[in-house]
Design brief:
Elements lengths: L7 H4 L3 H13 L4 H7 L11 E2 L7 E2 L13 H35 L11 H10 L9 H16 L14 H10 L6 H11 L8 H31 L7 E3 L9 E6 L3 H11 L2 H9 L5 E6 H11 L3 E3 L4 H6 L3 E6 L7 H6 L5 E4 L10 E2 L7 H14 L14 E3 L5 H9 L7 H9 L4 E5 L11 H12 L2 E5 L1 H9 L14 H10 L4 E3 L6 H14 L11 E5 L5 H12 L3 E4 L17 H14 L2 E4 L3 H18 L14 H9 L3 H9 L4
Parallel strand pairs: 4-5, 4-7, 5-6, 7-8, 8-9, 11-12, 11-14, 12-13, 14-15, 15-16
Antiparallel strand pairs: 1-2, 3-10
Bound molecules: FE(4)-NI(1)-S(5) cluster.
Length: 670
């Protein structure tokens, strides 16, 4: 078992996490944090210099000029490794999208127990985008056509996937010109694997061209389909009060933690937990009922729509088990640590796998099937309730924070313009005037090699001071939630003066939680509408906006980063670069590293960079935003021009003697 090398404050800024890490140490149990200490990353592999694509290797190229047995150069190997990672990330998100489409089809065929079409407005809006007739047709008929259309996108062999038609016109033309308009994600991923097989594509620019096309098939394909269908089936998110952190677990209830990504399962477990027979069953076992909580993006899905609390982000999956209070951890796909099962053996927690795609040795497997969803969800909960009597000593940190998530693109549109004038005009105007300097998306994972939540929340808070509106998804959003940054007016005193005025006027928090990682497509939709509403150029690359993934670790993050670059965004990753090369390379050309930034920027107006230092991330973000403002001929950012209206102005006036107040208000004194 690995021992702590860093202290708990170096592991995480979250007091709940720190408490559990102390408990782990006292109990002699390892976590991802201690394992990261015990296992430094391989400096060859982490720099993208190891090729293990065939049986002649692995070839580890530690010096410039070295080649693999087949003659592959460092640059080729780095590019191939990156293409494979992006393909894997795109496959994960898009396969989730495919399963959502199958569920929608099963619903319209009346074969999906427990599901209904909940958001008719979204169904009609999406159908209309693809010219699916809606007038005089039932929701089932419309949804059936949409499900067929979406299912057909995954294996589309030629032409372009229909979802790309939702990008700004100019962007679509650019993709056509560069030949990256994606076909179905299945075809792009297979081609990515083919091209990177021994003896295939060996030219860096050509390989990275396909990386872009593969990522686009995810962002403007599989992932966007996942978000659309989740909204249609479970409702488009709107603001709702929720809570986050391990303190949402309850001493007197059966705690079931759902962890993974697909809302098909978690939404049904939410429904099952509220069924009278399940509540009675839990009460018969001596508990007050069933308490659900989420981890990772499943947490975001049910938090955004149902207000079900989030127990934490990626690095809290083991820490939840360490409370000793979790009867069952129910997992589906993605970001599930194998270590959960061996850790759970020290407690009574039952780890339950549910996806036909994911089994873990030692876990109980109860396979989920959307045709019998509610029955299976109840079965899972009965297992958890039966386990309640086995609970031993518990330690639930009394740490939780409230938050308001649920800022879908649709809700932001409504919030800014109302029912009859739904629009992004006020946001564009605020950016054009300089009240809002620009927009940043702070998204992505936790990584045990950096201090949990620190980079996310530091970058977020510093950007807010600079009048940058922040949108968040994934584990980054949960990090901000735990720190109280997603709660209405809370923290507005730490926000720049112009941004503060806008937040007060519209009634929004300065950090908007937009959902899970597949929901990064909501950000693409927001950026597209900002273009269409006018005043900020005619394509996404002209908007003063930046995307950041300060604590990234998953291949999905790389796929997201690549489709954002292809959509025109500047994307900054924290941590280490998977294509960095060795620090001591003699004549370091860093071809791939430079291609991702300068090369891609020339082609797509967006670029991908890896920056470890958070202050440098912030500096580069602001520099980029200011450059984009200047290119649009917008006034230079000047915080002294704003902040004297709204509540600030009222408070200022109230402090004045009556005569002066009247003079200030009416230009005369009484
Ligand atoms: Ni995104 Fe969601 Fe979290 Fe990273 Fe994993 S949960 S899909 S990959 S760790 S943000």
């Amino acid at each position: 078992m690995a021992k702590q090398k860093r202290n708990v404050e170096e592991y995480s800024i979250d007091p709940a996490a720190q408490a559990m890490l102390i408990r782990a140490d006292e109990l002699g149990l390892g976590t991802a944090f201690t394992r990261a200490d015990a296992l430094p990353p391989c400096n060859i592999g982490s720099a993208g210099l190891c090729c293990k694509l065939c049986g002649m290797g692995p070839c580890r190229l530690t010096k410039d000029g070295l080649t693999g047995v087949c003659g592959a150069t460092i640059d080729t190997i780095q590019a191939r490794n990156l293409v494979r990672s992006i393909a894997a990330g795109a496959a994960a998100h898009s396969d989730h999208g495919r399963d959502m489409a199958f569920t929608l089809k099963a619903v319209v065929e009346g074969k999906a127990e427990g599901y209904v079409i909940r958001d008719l407005a979204k169904l009609r809006t999406i159908a209309t985008k693809y010219n699916i007739p809606t007038e005089g047709r039932s929701p089932t008929e419309i949804a059936s056509d949409l499900a067929d259309l979406y299912l057909a996108q995954f294996g589309q062999q030629k032409g372009q996937v229909v979802v790309t038609s939702r990008a700004p016109q100019k962007r679509q033309q650019l993709w056509q010109e560069h030949g990256v308009i994606p076909r179905g994600v299945d075809r792009e991923v297979v081609e990515a694997l083919h091209r990177t097989h021994i003896g295939d594509d060996q030219e860096v620019a050509h390989l990275l061209h396909h990386a872009i096309r593969t990522a686009l098939a995810d962002g403007w394909g599989g992932s966007m389909i996942a978000t659309d269908i989740a909204d249609i089936l479970f409702g488009t998110p709107a603001p709702i009060l929720g809570q986050a952190n391990l303190g949402v677990l309850k001493e007197d209830m059966v705690n079931v933690v759902v962890h993974g990504h697909e809302p098909t399962l978690s939404e049904m477990i939410v429904a099952a937990s509220q069924a009278p027979e399940i509540i009675e069953y839990a009460q018969a076992a001596g508990a007050k009922g069933v308490n659900l909580a989420g981890i990772c993006c499943t947490a975001n899905e049910i938090l955004m729509r149902q207000g079900i609390p989030a127990a934490g982000n990626f690095l809290q999956q083991e820490l939840a088990i360490l409370t000793g209070a979790v009867e069952a951890m129910v997992v589906d796909v993605q970001c599930i640590m194998q270590a959960l099962v061996s850790l759970a053996e020290n407690f009574h927690t039952q780890v339950i796998t549910t996806s036909p795609k994911v089994k873990i040795k030692g876990a109980l497997h109860i396979e989920f099937d959307e045709h019998r969803a509610l029955t299976i969800a109840k079965d899972i909960l009965r297992h958890a309730i039966d386990n309640y009597k086995n609970r031993g000593q518990t330690q639930i940190p009394n740490v939780r924070e409230s938050l308001v998530p649920g800022f879908s693109h649709e809700y932001i549109n409504y919030m800014l313009g109302g029912t009859y004038r739904a629009s992004f005009r006020p946001l564009n105007d605020a950016i054009m005037a300089g009240r809002i300097r620009g927009v940043a998306a702070v998204v992505g994972c936790n990584n045990p090699r950096s201090r949990q939540d620190y980079l996310h929340t530091y970058v977020t808070q510093e950007l807010l001071k600079q009048d940058v509106l922040v949108v968040e998804t994934g584990c980054g959003a949960i990090a901000s939630a735990k720190l109280g940054l997603l709660l209405g007016e809370a923290g507005l005193d730490k926000v720049g003066p112009g941004l503060r005025e806008v937040c007060e006027t519209v009634g929004i928090p300065p950090v908007l939680h937009m959902g899970s990682c597949v929901d990064n497509t909501r950000i693409l939709t927001v950026l597209t509408q900002m273009v269409e509403d006018g005043g900020l150029g005619d394509d996404i690359d002209q908007i003063p906006a930046v995307g950041l993934a300060p604590e990234w670790m998953s291949e999905k993050a790389l796929a997201i980063g690549a489709y954002c670059v292809a959509s025109g965004a500047y994307v900054i990753f924290g941590g280490s670069s998977p294509v960095s090369g060795m620090p001591d390379r003699v004549s370091d050309s860093d071809l791939v590293l430079h291609y991702l930034s300068e090369g891609w920027e020339k082609l797509y107006g967006g670029k991908m960079e890896f920056i470890a230092d958070p202050d440098e991330m912030i500096r580069k973000t602001l520099e980029h935003i200011d450059q984009k403002r200047a290119a649009l001929n917008l006034p230079a950012y000047d915080p002294s021009r704003f902040g004297r209206s709204g509540d600030a102005r009222v408070l200022e006036l109230e402090a004045l003697p009556l005569a002066e107040r009247q003079a200030a208000l009416y230009g005369v004194s009484a």
